[in-house]
Fold this sequence. Notes:
The protein is of the alpha+beta class. It is 44% helix and 13% strand.
Amino acid sequence: MVDFADNAEQAAFRKEVRATIQDRMPEILKARPDEAGERGGGWGRPTGARGEAMDVWRATLNEKGWVAPAWPKQYGGGDLDAVQQYVMNETFAEERAPKPRVPDVGSTIMVHGSDAQKQEFLPPMIAGTTNWCQGYSEPGSGSDLASLQTRAERDGDDFVVNGQKIWTSGAHVSNMIFMLVRTDPEAPKHRGITYLLSPMDVPGITVRPLVQMHDAAEFNETFFEDVRVPVSNAVGEINRGWYVGATHLDFERSSIGQAVGQLQMLDSLKNFLIEERDSGNGRSRLNEPDAPRGEFADRYIEANVAKTLSQRVISMQGRGLIPNYEASMTKLFSTEFRQRIARTATKLLGRYGDLRDREYETSPQRGRWATMYLSSVSATLAGGTSEIQRNVIATRGLGLPRG
Ligand SMILES: Cc1cc2nc3c(=O)[nH]c(=O)nc-3n(C[C@H](O)[C@H](O)[C@H](O)COP(=O)(O)OP(=O)(O)OC[C@H]3O[C@@H](n4cnc5c(N)ncnc54)[C@H](O)[C@@H]3O)c2cc1C
């Protein structure tokens, strides 16, 4: 029988996490950014009082090793097991507490990096002094990533990098980049690639913003012109970076769906719809005969499916395994599910569901559902499209032949 209840140790840990949030998290962080009248999401450290409060909060969490809960204590992590990490994420989501986390490149360095790289790159990730962006995609290489053309030529102790990356999320606020570059153009396409780390503030890197349909400019084009990167910044073996990059994607796809927060999101919508129905202001269609109530129930079931898929990934990580097609299942389901949540929400909010101006007083919940309707499209592309996840599940998970 599957028993999801906490044992005594897990219950005590859950209590400790909740008490830390309730007692020590700065007051300003208790309101979500959009409720506090600020832009939510986005990249980089928030500005002003919220940014300062986040620094205090990060320092508090660092005392306990909770910014990188999975990492060994030696690198500033918490050495928590997989279940403790899950309990922690769930409690943060329930308390709606922001949680600074280390980038997935850190977990990749933990698997493939040298001791010197771990000493150099991991502590600043925990301290929050480095922001990383990902240089994988190129104008002609997205799903077929192994066709990438950005070239790194050896010159003494350096590589000299030339080429272009695209869709580089957060490059405009990052001071470090990890990227895949071609180091052997003669080798078969998966073989001549290296996984390289570089500061962003070096001569030859230019970043140009790309604006999305919900008006945010979160990703960029990134150009490299004779950029010098020390050879010692290659993670894993030179020309075998494809496999390092694949480990990175497995970590990215494991966490991309953030399933734990989705039940809270549905609860918040349900409470809002009930309050609005009771006030009779027309922003809730709950009592209308054709309101999609059954669809809303489906979303609740799916939230629990998403949670179980995440638990599987977490339990694998806890056993020291790197989830592969299991991470693809979680990513695929959670990101497509997010689109269904937004669709159901906008239907239940009727004609108010399309309002997304957060300052407009009739925009439901500061317009978050209409914004989510638009922004959730991109999540099924980032980190590999849904079709690519299905290919991974079909071939590596089910053993079906490649098409
Ligand atoms: C919000 C967002 C953030 C991103 N951030 C980053 C980032 O930080 N760094 C980075 O490097 N990249 C980033 N990307 C890029 C992302 O990884 C690519 O968009 C994605 O891999 C798809 O590549 P593409 O856009 O070139 O589409 P294409 O590969 O051209 O695909 C076009 C269509 O064809 C389908 N298709 C392609 N090949 C197959 C196949 N073999 N089987 C079935 N269908 C197929 C795709 O599913 C898609 O529908 C981001 C993208 C988004 C949307």
